[in-house]
Amino acid sequence: MAKPSARERILGSYEVILADRGPAEITLDAVAAHAGVSKGGLLYHFGSKDALRDGLLERLERLTDDDLERARTAPEGVVRYYLRSAITDVTSDLALHRTTMAAIRLVLNDPTAAEVSRRCTERTRELMLEHVEDRLTAELVMLVGEGLYMRAALGEEATESLLAQIDEIADRIEAGAPAKATIAAGHRKN
Amino acid sequence: MAKPSARERILGSYEVILADRGPAEITLDAVAAHAGVSKGGLLYHFGSKDALRDGLLERLERLTDDDLERARTAPEGVVRYYLRSAITDVTSDLALHRTTMAAIRLVLNDPTAAEVSRRCTERTRELMLEHVEDRLTAELVMLVGEGLYMRAALGEEATESLLAQIDEIADRIEAGAPAKATIAAGHRKN
DNA sequence: TTTCTTATACCGTCCAGACGGTACAGTTTC
DNA sequence: GAAACTGTACCGTCTGGACGGTATAAGAAA
């Protein structure tokens, strides 16, 4: 990967600036400069700022699907895989994490772009539901994960100390879940 | 209450636009129009856009402190109070919620303003630590709450169905905590 | 083999409009 | 009569985006 295509580089710069400096500082000039490309060059690949946004969201969806596939086959199970990556990603340089951070910033800046992000969450939730005993467990795992992403987005230090406690977290969250066969002994919603 | 001062109205409009439409659409003109005030009038009260931001963050800090005081004396306990308001606030029109949403959008747009928000989180965490048995419990409660705020900020529908499950959520999270006192049995107060 | 054509991948400049902010004179409200 | 505005006019800067030009390489045509 000595030389990623200019297009990829531009998209990467877009993400980095979004994730590190926030939407307030994202301009075509800034992206072009960071990517080592002229503004004209940038506009050759992405005809508008909106196209840049669409490119990011597209990438987010692709990377998320890849990650869900990895989660599905993770030996530790979906719950622990999800929690682990929500914690680890904060410091790791996984492409998905950077893309996610950028997307969060983007969507919170301009709520009209929220659909893709919602779709990604929804798919994660579906996968989670297939792998836990009840709805509440899935909900809590998701919420803890979203909390971690929130912290990362707010620029708080990584909570790496949680890494060693993943098993305990998962155990606690699953603690009250009904045993395998039946769903929720009191309330079920449709 | 029939007529809040123009200053308060302006700040309110600033919050509403931030929370509903996002930082991308916040301009002095938009705020002035929404508040029913001329641009000159706006600038009379807030000499610059930054002053508007500072006003919001100041209000956030004040409302947060008020809320922490309420949490401290809530009969259901800090944990349940915190979870309940993180769920309820999504739909309720409490001033704190709107201010928080606006602040989240603001901070994620311009990370340099993150300090106040961090301070509020820190104070909440401290209170939480005083009222739970161990660190992990506090951490999980906070994370679930932050997850809920994240969802609200992303514009997802309120998870009101969780309201009925607050006790179960709290029980699960506290499940593995070293038992200093009876926790799961009933509401514990301090 | 040289020339012409076409496609791709850019560069650099320019411009209209938006935005933050200033200035200030006039008007209403307390 | 002061404080709290309104309204208008204006300025400098930044930004997105349009546009025309350039370099290069690969084929097709002569």
UniProtKB/TrEMBL annotation, chains A, B:
Residue ranges occupied by any HTH tetR-type domain in the UniProt entry: 4-64
Annotated TM spans: none
Pfam families, A to Z: TetR_C_28, TetR_N
Keyword Transcription regulation: yes
Residue ranges of DNA binding: 27-46
Keywords: DNA-binding, Transcription, Transcription regulation
Protein name per UniProt: TetR/AcrR family transcriptional regulator
Naturally occurring in which organism (per UniProt): Amycolatopsis albidoflavus
